[in-house]
Amino acid sequence: QMENKRGNISIITYVVLLGFGDLKEVGTALFSLFLSLYVVTLCGNLLLILAVQTSPYLCHLSCVDVGYTSSIAPQLLREVLAGGVTISFPACVVQLYAVGSLLTVECFLLAVMSYDRYLAICWPLRYSVLMDIRTCVKLAVGSWIGGFLFVGIVLILLSTLTFCGPNVIDNFFCNFFSLVKLSCTDTTMVETVVLTSSFLSLSPFLWTLLSYSCILSSTLRISSSTGRYRAFSTCSSHLIVVSVFYGTLFVVYMTPALETTLNLNKIFSLLYTVLTPLLNPLVYSLRNKDVQIALKNGAKLSCLV
Q1: How big is the CA angle at 25 (ends 175 and 252), to the nearest 5 degrees?
Q2: Cα–Cα distance, 163 to 180 (Å, whole number)
Q3: CA angle, 188 as apex, 194 and 155 as ends, to 5°?
Q4: What H or E segment, with its residue span, contains residue 221?
Q5: In what order do the strands lie in the sheet with 14-17?
Q6: Which of 46, 108, 268, 286 is the most exposed place for a label (fewest CB within 10 A)?
Q7: Helix, strand or coil for residue 148?
């Protein structure tokens, strides 16, 4: 049964995700591309988790990347082959919660990592005291709890709405604004509350900006060019990841939802949901000496075995 009746209102029980249906003729090529990216993303992040035991934030970041990529990629692979996919409405809500929570966790983790870099550059002599293992664990666990609690509030707000159609989402995964459009009740209050809370959720981004402002100020006061280069190289990997992640995120959610920008938004959504998790292990492997040493040691051990 496709619909349930509640009074005179038909409640939708499934959702049609159009994905990249207009590119169905190249579906096989897209399937091969996305499958390759997904496999490389999983291998890269899992390798990073195994190789870098001394950097808990990198391990948590890789776990987040594996989580939300796996929440989207298998469904995306089905969509490009079939030109769209039909999923149950509860499954759509679960995907919204999983992807939204993990993306929020990543925002918190990136902010914590920027604070870590700030302490390392601006307070090097006190770094080991200010950022000991207990503090690292607390900040990492707090990031996970904060992300899932924040999106949990969004789900509570969604539960106050009635969804009676249409049941078509012109995207490749379920997100809040796409799901709200399926409601046949007034969504003004819910959207206002979520938008207001979204500004509060920018606090990790603002914290990241503040940390890097302090880092830049401290770096410019270093007299030697060698010292400035070392300070910059310490945070260059993180800065690249932050720029790509927030850059694509802002383009998607700050661009008006016009028909002419829907396909462009899908492409940018791919950047932060599929390509950023692939980029993270690559950037940290190339730019982080600890990661390079760990990978080299792992390679030597595998050769000995």
Answers
A1: 25
A2: 8
A3: 40
A4: none
A5: 85-88, 14-17, 168-169
A6: 286
A7: helix
Rg (CA), the chain: 21
pTM of the model: 0.85
Asked if 90 contacts 15 with a C-beta cutoff of 8 angstroms, the reply is no
Instruction: Give dist(CA 131, CA 266) in Å, integer.
Output: 39
pLDDT band at 301 (very low <50, low <70, confident <90, very high): very low
Query: How would you label 240-271 residue by residue, b for 16+ Cβ within 10 Å and e otherwise?
Result: bbbebbbebbebbeeeeeeeeeeeebbebbbb
Write out the H or E segment, with its range, that includes residue 124: none
> In this structure, what token pair is assigned to residue 292?
């390079």
Between CA 114 and CA 108 the distance in angstroms is 10
Categorize the per-residue pLDDT at 10 as very low, low, confident or very high, splitting at 50, 70 and 90. low
The topology (CATH level 3) of 3-304 is: Rhopdopsin 7-helix transmembrane proteins (1.20.1070)
